Amino acid sequence: MSILIKQAVYEDLELIQKVGRQSYIDHFSTIWTRQGVETFLNGSFSDEQLRHSLDDNNQFWFLYMQSPEKCIGIAKVHLNEYEPNIKCEGAELEKIYFLREAVGQGYAKKFIQFILDFAEERDQKSMYLSVLKSNVRAQRFYEYHGFVYKADVPYSTDLYDIGMNIMKFDYCNQN
Asked: Is the dihedral of CA 130, 131, 134, 140 positive or negative?
């Protein structure tokens, strides 16, 4: 089985939508009402939103292909972003989602390393992300890969006030 991580293009729009929607539902549907999650997904994965981000020279979508026909994960990275809560400028890992069937298989380790290398090659001094406070497994994963907790920020769904943790990876503090 050959694994391929590739940058998404316009022709991949439906694939981003399919894998993004399904993976989000797989992992986060319990924090929303049914209507709430649909509203969130319709906004996050609309044709218009995806075309806009694919047109932006500082936004990148990546597909994690288990085979040429099977996408099992997606990621979205912004370069040259500013995070005011931690006064950080660098890359933002906005999304990294895997289908439920792909979790625990080691794919995320390869994907996060690819993303960290991608940002470093583009002269980003750091990378930051937001992760649900309740998602302890993801927080441990990011810590293992060199991210450190920096701040809490509010986050709410139509059911809960959950909160997010901002985590940061500094390239200059690695090695």
From this structure: negative
In the chain, the amino acid numbered 78 is H
What's the start-to-end Cα distance of the chain, in Å?
A: 31
Ordered strands of the 88-98 beta sheet? 4-7, 59-67, 70-83, 88-98, 126-132, 164-170, 148-153
State the Cα–Cα distance between residues 155 and 115, nearest whole angstrom.
25
121: left (phi over 0), alpha (psi -120 to 50) or beta: alpha
Lookup: tokens for 172? 């200059």
Can you give the length of the chain in residues? 175
pLDDT tens across 128-159, in order? 999 999 999 999 999 999 999 999 999 999 99
Task: Please state whether the predicted TM-score (pTM) of the whole model is above 0.90.
Answer: yes
- What does the block give as tokens for 67? 């085979």
Do 136 and 144 contact (CB within 8 A), yes or no? no
Q: In this structure, how many other beta carbons lie within 10 angstroms of the beta carbon of residue 59?
A: 16
**Three-state DSSP string of 101-165:** HHCCCCHHHHHHHHHHHHHHHCCCCEEEEEEECCCHHHHHHHHHCCCEEEEEECCECCCCECCEE
Domains of the chain: 4-173 (3.40.630.30)
